[in-house]
Amino acid sequence: MRVFNFSAGPAVLPEVVLQRAAAEMLDWHGSGMSVMEMSHRGKEFISIAERAEADLRALLAIPKHYKVLFLQGGAIGENAIVPMNLVNGRAVADYVDTGEWSKKSLKEARKYCTVNVAASASDRGYTYVPPQSSWQLTPGAAYVHVCTNETIGGVEYGFTPDTGDVPLVADMSSHLLSRVVDVAKYGVIYGGAQKNMGPAGLTLVIVRDDLLDRALPITPSAFHWQEQAAADSMLNTPATYSIYIAGLVFEWLLAQGGVAAIERVNVAKSKLLYDYLDGSSFFRNDVLPQDRSRMNVPFKLADPALDGEFLKGAEQHGMVQLKGHRAVGGMRASIYNAMPMAGVQALVDYMREFERRRG
Ligand code: PMP
User: Fold this and answer.
1) Is 300 designated active site?
2) Ligand 1 pocket check for 174: Cβ under 6 Å
């Protein structure tokens, strides 16, 4: 029996995608092979990768002067790969610190350049996005880095920063494809696939063409965006099966009506949960309402001694992976694109019942 899986990642995938992958497991489209067994240079896999890229470009309306790279190393890998590819000839990079993932990014970047923390939300426990008017940006910086959805803290940008001529670089690991984004406002968008796109192992990088000549000479070829772009992301063997599943997820998203359509569902799903939290005297979420994540909803019980009982009861009701990240404790419901409204409704029903009984 399938459960409602609220994991922050690797996370729930659309059931129809898993069914299709199962049906195609032993023999992909009459090839007599599993996708896992195909050469990445064979015509079958090339067609899978090309279709995945074309569908992603359609979903996000990615302009022609951007490259789409299917790489590896995860978003944590990108924390190093981003500066390596962008700081040649420029000494300083600006970082906006909105939580655990921003902190990790800027700490890693310090190995490659001088990091200026342009703004930080640490003063209020990472419960908001510092407004751009408060950012102390460096003129001529190599780039400005933001994490537009903090998966642990549950803080999401509701605005697109304006950094003028300085390229804006965004870690969108946990909300890419959940809302409409104007790619042209960014120099680089990156993210691990294992939340909203597919299985772990695939890292997506979308990079503007004119930024491909800024890499440090030490940049490893496998992580050198210009070299990978020239090789259609096949300078080394890519994460073929993860690309295939991501491609099926892209097809599913297009069939749902695309990103604008799924965004409406995401607005409704997150509203259901936040409205309940705000009306409850037993559960709470501390994030400034305008900066709350639609994808990751952390919440706390009035009495943390009941956390274990809450989680156990949730499991008995078919809802799993609700425990909050160890860095912050409490609970967290990740409600990515593939989480149906019925899952959020089941969670709210259970919370209401728990509050009535134990509140
Ligand atoms: N950035 C964000 C926003 C994330 O949510 C995560 C994973 N939870 C990471 C970076 C790290 O990704 P990975 O483990 O794929 O390197």
Assistant:
1) no
2) yes
Ligand 1 and 147: CB distance under 6 A: yes
Q: Give the Cα separation of 16 and 12 in Å (integer).
A: 12
Q: Is 171 one of the annotated active-site residues of the chain?
A: yes
What letter represents residue 40's amino acid?
Answer: H
Mean pLDDT of 113-130: 98
141 touches 92 (CB < 8 A):
yes
Q: Does domain 15-255 have CATH number 3.40.640.10?
A: yes
What confidence score (pLDDT) does residue 204 get?
Answer: 98
Ligand 1, closest atom to CA 203? 15
C-alpha 287/C-alpha 303 separation (Å) is 19
CATH architecture of 257-358: Alpha-Beta Complex (3.90)
Question: Active site includes 213?
Answer: no
User: What is the band of 156 on the pLDDT scale with cuts at 50, 70, 90?
Assistant: very high
Domain locations along the chain: 15-255, 257-358
Listed in sequence order, the DSSP H helices in the chain are: 15-23, 43-60, 74-86, 100-109, 225-230, 240-255, 259-279, 307-316, 341-358
